[in-house]
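Fold it.
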Amino acid sequence: MTFCQVLSSVSVAAVLAVAAAPMAQAQFGGMPGMPGAPGMGGFGAPPSGPPAAPPPACQQLMALRDERQKSLDALTASKGKADPAEACKLFKTLISTETKFIQGMETNSTQCGVPPQIIKQAHDGHTKAMQIEKQVCDAAERPRGPSLSDALNSTPVLPDADSTKSTNRGGTYDTLQGNPLAR
């Protein structure tokens, strides 16, 4: 797989990941302290008391979600501009933050109101991102061959415009050894 093919698959994966990100963020509906949570009333009903802050575990989960989104934004911003080594580094950061985020969702799913289908979607997207990360990092590790100039151990030299002009213009019959008619 060429580097261009890897980058095109990276851009497709980034678009898929960005498209799935709002869905995962919008599904924290039953989280304490959020609208729609028990005791908070609906969007039209008055709250039944002062708004409660989400538990610390849910606050940490939201911080991990924001960190994951920053990693995704950095990856999509570098689309087509980063060299393979930089793209590999960005993918490794994304994979690391996604892993922490998914583990946090699994651990605190009941406390923070994370539905099981959201965790499954996150796992599926994470699996695809890991496959693309492997392709990108493999492309980054592949040694690049030398250019033709490097292989020939020379630098390209263009002929000088003045040296190509002959001072002895003999006409049509002029050869390298001179004009045969003049002999």
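The mean pLDDT is 73.
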